[in-house]
Amino acid sequence: MKKIGELLVEQGKISERDVERTLLAQAEMGGVFGQVLVKLGLVSEADVAAALSGQLAIPLQTAADYPETPVRLEDVADDFLVSNAVV
């Protein structure tokens, strides 16, 4: 599995020098690599989320992926709720 820094370099979001700088800052201040990148202003949270999505092979969800109005549990079939361990 590639590291977040490698993925962001491949995407052209940061340079190898940025990775080195972030690792030094991470050693000083602690925290997760992606969070340190954001604190340093090198990438956005969205950039880190997209890289994590690629790293973990999990689709990135956006607001457009959710209904405009919440789904009420009363409107969902009981069989679905039970089979998906919601209740």
Protein traits:
87 residues, single chain, 0% strand, mainly alpha, elongated
Description:
With 87 residues, the protein is an all-alpha fold. The protein has one domain (4-83). Helix content is 53%, strand content 0%. It is elongated and about 55 Å long. The chain starts with a helix and ends with a helix.
Could you outline the blueprint of secondary structure elements for this entry?
Elements: H1 4-10, H2 16-29, H3 33-39, H4 45-56, H5 78-83
In short:
The chain has 87 residues and is an all-alpha fold.
- End-to-end C-alpha gap: 35 Å
Secondary-structure-based class equals mainly alpha
In sequence order, what are the helices and strands, one letter per element? HHHHH
Query: Spans of 5+ residues with little confidence (pLDDT < 50)?
Result: none
- Average pLDDT across residues? 95
Considering DSSP H and I runs of 4 or more, what fraction of the residues is helical? 40-55%
